[in-house]
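Example is below:
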Amino acid sequence: MLLVCASCLSKVEVDTVVFNGQIYALDSVNTTYTAMVIDKGRIVTLGTDDLKNRFLAKKFIDLEGKAVVPGLIDAHSHFYGLGLGTLHVDLVGTESIEEILNRIDTFRSQNKDVAFIYGRGWDQNDWETKEFPTRYDLDRRFYDLPVVLERIDGHAYWVNSEAIKLAKIDTDTPSKGGAIITLDDEPSGILVDGPMRFIDAVMPPPSRDQQIKGLLAAQEICFDYGLTTVSDAGISKDVIHLIDSLQKEDLLKIRLYAMVSNTEADVNYFLSKGPYKTERLNVSSVKVYGDGALGSRGAALKRPYADAPGHFGAFVTPVNEMRAIAERLIDSDFQMNTHAIGDAANFEVLSIYQDLLSGEQDRRWRIEHAQIVDELDFSLFAKGVIPSVQPTHATSDMYWAEDRLGHERMVGAYAYQTLLAKSGIVALGTDFPVESVNPYYTFYAAVARKDLEGYPDAGFIPEQSLTREQALRGMTEWAAYAQFEENEKGRLLPGFFADFTVLSADLMTASEKDLPMIKAEMVFIGGEQVK
């Protein structure tokens, strides 16, 4: 006689039950649970550990009391750039010209057939002498092949004489949208923003195999830190198509919000096709560059730089051209996501948004960075205009930002709490590889406003710090909202994707000094463990 367990027959079959955790759902009242049920890539229900007795799961995972948060989202990054960077010279953290030259030497010794050297990550503000380098610094060791070194913020190139010759740059070369720094009436080897295009035109593009290798490497880096969705703030149609193909082959499992680069060909293509959305890829926005970066004095300011009298920075995209693309996008289903760092750039972009968004319903146009805002212009931020900010920029720039701006303008600098009050949300990211990929540095910088050594004691402009719950929502729920995906990710609710990150310590209760040391112990996307 066959005996069947009645209680087993009544159990619902599911893929996974996780239990014995501290699960932050991030619902409206920030409920915490100890267990969660997952099936077919989505959350079925959340509750107490009794759930493991009510479901018949293929897999039960004991979380051992660990904190669980919704899968972390980086709202502004350069995923493809991070990947390509793994194939070139890494200059992040270098503290002198000599250290940079030595890293290039090492790279060249390991890649003897290279005919064009590219590196990224230098920042003259980290050197003892905080002046721009020159081509002659490179020429004394690298005179026989082109060398192109991109500044950490992506807004300046430092090149040698061979690269200048290859790009045919001279004193008559136009510098629209930026600057060609000169020395003794000759190009010094520093190109800021617009003129970088002349170097781009002669740099050999990566092969398809290199692109794939880079994208897969970037994915592993992001998984290691607990990211489940990343943005890419400006990529081409061809790279978007490559990412889509790799996702369809299940090689790229990470979810990606791709901002289309503001080139005529790419914009025309996507506007003619309309937004493209899969479970892993969201192409529904255009990235526009308003100005340059503060570190290279390319950010557009209303009044001159305090440390460079007479210099105002520059608009990378002229205001009339920004308005023109905005007028095209307002008649489409695409978001406009505009890089604006200086107070002049923020004012012009916000003014364009205000003119065109009046009467529009829920367009969620974004200001990427919103770094320096005139006190009088905060009123231009409102519900529906989303500040997308990067907290580690504040703690990286704090050593020299006041030198650039003067004390008076600092009241509108890195003002995340003010922006949150005006817009209702702030989407948080890193801008990697400009800053570290590490999202726990983001969280720490947002709430503590300190560097990794705990400086300054009271925090940098501490009144603009975010609470822990605000910071976590900025890295999850609000980041999802900023890309129209708040009903599928960013919280742990029934029906949402089972994207979640298991942490080594609880972000909400760990001591402030321990926040940067938190690690991702397990990472799940659509219920699949990817770390």
